[in-house]
């Protein structure tokens, strides 16, 4: 073999070592037609299960034996009427409203916060003022529910009422998130139950048929996950 042939062979070997391969062939698993059908059925079943269970999970009802009911002040008027009926059916002695400063019409409103506004609404609807207490919370940018829970805890710590347990009254799918936060702030000193009022803006059993229901439930799912695993609001 000549020198030129030897050099050519060495060059070819060197070129082979540094050769860049952009693609290569490999074997992989993929779904069959039957596999795709089973996967599609599982996805549909999961969607149906989620649609049917997510609202009851968020709009939780888990009341405890209590003589005090705490009403979140931002709830609509029809829920206030339901709260009165609930109070009268139960063995409650007092009703407490909570809430932050109103976000619209503050400078024109007679009542500057939702706690006092809702308490006044209770009185107009015939509720006994002697059994009613408004506990407003300060204005905050975030942690609004927590601020209401803390304000309630501070008021209860100086109150003459001997409160060992309460039932929190909220609206629909917001109930679980509020329950988590009030429990974190008040327990173990005060046991916290929860009651979810039924919204009238959409059908809770078919919330996905309404844009209001979709916005509310999806928003509460995101907010619940945020409150549970990231931070409170």
CATH homologous superfamily grouping: HUPs
- How far the N terminus sits from the C terminus, by CA atoms, comes to 83 Å
What is the CATH architecture descriptor? Answer: 3-Layer(aba) Sandwich
Unreliable stretches covering 5 or more consecutive residues: none
CATH topology: Rossmann fold
Q: Over the alpha carbons, how many angstroms does the gyration radius reach?
A: 30 Å
Strand ordering within the main sheet: 3-2-1-4-5
Shape: elongated
* Number of beta strands: 5
Helix content: 40-55%
CATH hierarchy class name: Alpha Beta
Q: What's the number of domains? A: 1
Strand content: 5-15%
Q: Structural class given helices, strands, pairing? A: alpha/beta
**Which sequence of SSEs, written as H and E, runs from N to C?**
HHEHEHEHEHEH
Structure at a glance:
The chain is α/β, with parallel strands linked by helices and 233 residues long. The chain has 7 helices and 5 strands; from the N terminus they run ααβαβαβαβαβα.
Could you explain how this protein is built, in words?
The protein is an alpha/beta fold and 233 residues long. The chain has one domain (57-229): HUPs (Rossmann fold). It has helices spanning 3-18, 33-58, 77-89, 114-124, 144-158, 175-186, 211-229; strands at residues 68-72, 94-99, 132-136, 165-171, 191-197. It has a 5-stranded parallel β-sheet, with helices on both faces. Helix 5 (144-158) packs across helix 6 (175-186). The longest helix has 26 residues, at 33-58. The radius of gyration is 30 Å and the shape is elongated. The mean pLDDT is 87.
